[in-house]
Amino acid sequence: MIEPRRVRVVHPRTDAASRGPLPPAVPAEDAGTEVDEIYLRSLIRGQARLALLVVAATAVLLGGVAVLGAVWPAFDRTRIAGVPVAWLILGVAVYPLLISLAWLAVREAERNEDDFRSLTGRR
User: Fold this and answer.
1) Closest among 97, 94, 93 to 105, alpha carbons compared
2) What is the tally of structural domains in the chain?
3) pTM of the prediction?
4) Which residue ranges traverse the bilayer (predicted)?
5) Residue 12 falls inside a structural domain
6) Rounded CA gap, 30 and 34, in Å?
7) Cα(117)–Cα(123) distance, integer angstroms
């Protein structure tokens, strides 16, 4: 009779945890200068400001539709070519505006990052 082999099953994270701390990704001699840190904080602030503007614009757009429905009682009963205006606004008008807003946000974020790269001399 053949004896079955015993296999020890170990989770990969257990092995990684027992190895100790990893060396830093960037060696100390290549670490950023104080100017690089200032530029990085500026980039983070710019990206955060952009994110807040996008969130505010989205809230105004979608909140405006909700306010329009609350202020104009005939909003859900008014029809254009047999289609309720509410559905036209929610289903047709809002999406191109949201897509345009997203496109502008991505373009501005990339512009911020390009400016950061040009200031720090990185590729």
Assistant:
1) 97
2) 1
3) 0.64
4) 50-72, 84-106
5) no
6) 12
7) 6
